[in-house]
TrEMBL record:
Domain C2: 15-149
Keyword Repeat attached: yes
Stored CDD domains: C2B_Synaptotagmin-17
Name of the protein this chain belongs to: Synaptotagmin-17
Gene field: SYT17
InterPro entries, sorted: C2_dom, C2_domain_sf, Synaptotagmin, Syt17_C2B
Length: 168
C-alpha cells in the first residue's frame, strides 16, 4: 500500500505543483507567522498566456473560517517566487484547534479564478507531510520551519480535511 501512496504523491507533484512554506509560532505574542516563499511546476491554467498564480491563506479555527489573506499574483509563470509574509493572531490555547488552508489559484480577469491545488496544515492536515510540518513548528517555537508540499486536489482535501470544506 505504501507504494501506491508514493505513486499518488508523485502524481500530484507532476499534475498540480509544489509550494514552499515557512511556519513559526511566537507563543508570547500569540502570533502564527507564515511565509509563502515560492511555488514550482504549477499546473498551467491558461495555455495561451501561462498562469498568473496567487496563494490564498485561510485560518480555520475548529470548523470556522476566521481570516483570509492572499499573496500578490505573478503574471505568466508556473514557478513564482513570492517571499511574502503573513501573521495571524492565534492565542496559544487555540493553536491545537487551528488549521491553515493554502489554496493556489490562477488569477483570471474574465471569470472566477482557476483552482490549481490546495494543502491544509494544522489540526485537520491534508496528509502526512503537512502533519509533519505542523508538528515540527509546534516543537520549535520562535524558529521558522521551512518545507516543500505537493499540492493536492480540492476533492482529496475535502475528503481528508474538514477544514478544507469550510473555505472556498
Amino acid at each position: 500500500m505504501g507504494t501506491f501512496f508514493a505513486f499518488m504523491e508523485k502524481k500530484n507533484e507532476v499534475e498540480l505543483g509544489e509550494l514552499l512554506l515557512s511556519l513559526n509560532y511566537l507563543p508570547s505574542a500569540g502570533r502564527l507567522n507564515v511565509d509563502v516563499i515560492r511555488a514550482k511546476q504549477l499546473l498551467q491554467t491558461d495555455v495561451s498566456q501561462g498562469s498568473d498564480p496567487f496563494v490564498k491563506i485561510q485560518l480555520v479555527h475548529g470548523l470556522k473560517l476566521v481570516k483570509t489573506k492572499k499573496t500578490s499574483f505573478l503574471r505568466g509563470t508556473i514557478d513564482p517566487f513570492y517571499n511574502e509574509s503573513f501573521s495571524f493572531k492565534v492565542p496559544q490555547e487555540e493553536l491545537e484547534n487551528a488549521s491553515l488552508v493554502f489554496t493556489v489559484f490562477g488569477h483570471n480577469m474574465k471569470s472566477s479564478n482557476d483552482f490549481i491545488g490546495r494543502i491544509v496544515i494544522g489540526q485537520y492536515s491534508s496528509g502526512p507531510s503537512e502533519t509533519n510540518h505542523w508538528r515540527r513548528m509546534l516543537n520549535t517555537h520562535r524558529t521558522a520551519v521551512e518545507q516543500w508540499h505537493s499540492l493536492r486536489s480540492r476533492a482529496e482535501c475535502d475528503r481528508v480535511s474538514p477544514a478544507s470544506l469550510e473555505v472556498t
